[in-house]
Amino acid sequence: MNNKKTLKKLKDQYFEIEIPKEIDVYINNGIIKGKLQLKKEKRKAKQIKWFGSIAAVFIAFVISINTIPSFAAATCDIPGLGKLVKILKFEKNIGHGGIITDGTDVNLISMQKYKDYENIIINFSNDTASHFDIYYREYPYTLIFSVSGARHFSAQNDLKLLKQSSFIKDAYPIITLDDSMIRFALTFNKPFNYEVTEYKEPAQIVVKISPKKEIPKHEIYSIRSKSYINGEELGLLEETFLDLEGTRILKDRKGYFCVEIGYFNSIDEAQKNLEELKDKYPILSQFYIEKRNALDLPEHTE
User: Fold this and answer.
1) φ and ψ at residue 140, rounded to 5 degrees
2) 143 DSSP 8-state letter
3) Coil, helix or strand for 146?
4) Residues 34, 87: one domain?
5) Same domain for 45 and 98?
6) The domain containing residue 68 runs over which residues?
7) Is the pLDDT of residue 58 over 90?
8) Is residue 190 exposed (0-12), middle (13-18) or buried (19+ Cβ within 10 Å)?
9) Cα 235 to the center of its chain, rounded Å
10) Which of 100, 138, 227, 244 could bond 256 through an S-S bridge, CB–CB 3.0 to 4.6 Å?
11) Pairing of strands 257-264, 248-251
């Protein structure tokens, strides 16, 4: 009897308990927390599986680079695949990189277009780039590449592909009488900003090109030779002026080449320099002064 009374009393107390109005919120929050925890645990399991897959792909990638030549060649189109060596600093419009070596091959040159810039990717056969110099010049806008210790230029035909660039008007090899050096030039159709980064393992030079807003430049007066084919006579003529800073070979409007020893802001200044140099370089009597705008190529003269 007492047990029945006790049970009834407990039952009455149970039904008299006031249930909080927020009980549904608490229950829902508990359910949500449980689901989130479950998702978190599942995600963690997937990440472990994903990282394992990535590791497997990476191992396969490394093996492929070292064992399959065609796959290795394809990866050369990827800029910055190797280890960063440095971002070149240009002083007086000249940048230097690489190490002194011999027997390398500049074996691939490619281009990648992006929305606001383009990359020119220059690949070497060695793990480290051979010593190289890059010269920025204007009238016309030009980047000139000189690679020492290079016995081969397998990528020479790749220069034609660079003409598909939004920035590059022409790309061409330059004669050199040094059999352990290659040179080539890129001529641009507009002002541009540039940044050059060197990588190793594999060896690459990545040239980033982007638009540059610039006030239109004034005309200049160039001291230049007549036009030549890209051969030994042109190379010998250039070597005559190697001690003159600013000497360069330029491609003219008909695909021939000339040697330029400098350009000046006025015809009087150009004429004065030409006359002063004739005593040291008698062959300058065959040179003349040409007026050009910022984007003009040299005229063809015979």
Assistant:
1) -85, 170
2) E
3) strand
4) no
5) no
6) 21-75
7) no
8) middle
9) 28
10) 227
11) antiparallel
> For residues 187 and 197, what is the distance between their CA atoms, to the nearest angstrom?
20
Q: Are 143 and 207 in contact (CB under 8 A)?
A: yes
- Rounded CA separation 209/214 (Å): 15
Helix runs in the chain, H state only: 2-16, 23-67, 69-75, 232-239, 267-277
Banded model confidence at residue 45, pLDDT cuts 50, 70, 90: low
Question: In the structure encoding, which two tokens stand for residue 156, read together?
Answer: 């020479």
119 three-state secondary structure: strand
Q: Indicate whether 196 and 237 sit together in one domain.
A: no
**Spatial contact of 286 and 277, defined as CB atoms under 8 Å apart:** no
**pLDDT value of position 302:** 87
pLDDT cut 90: percent of the chain above it: 70
Q: Are residues 87 and 206 in the same domain?
A: yes
Q: Which residue has the tokens 């040239």?
A: 207
- On the question of pLDDT at 141 being above 60, the answer is yes
CATH number of the domain residue 194 falls in: 2.60.40.3500
Mean pLDDT of 140-159: 96
Asked, for residue 10, whether it belongs to a domain, the answer is no
Q: Cα(129)–Cα(105) distance, rounded to whole angstroms?
A: 10
Among 159, 176, 211, the domain-final residue is 211
Reported as a pLDDT band with limits 50, 70 and 90, residue 35 is very low
Mean per-residue pLDDT, 167-174: 97
Q: Which of 161, 177, 211 is the last residue of a domain?
A: 211
pLDDT at position 123 is 97
Per the domain annotation, does 301 fall within a domain?
Answer: no
Helix (H, G, I), strand (E, B) or coil at 217: coil
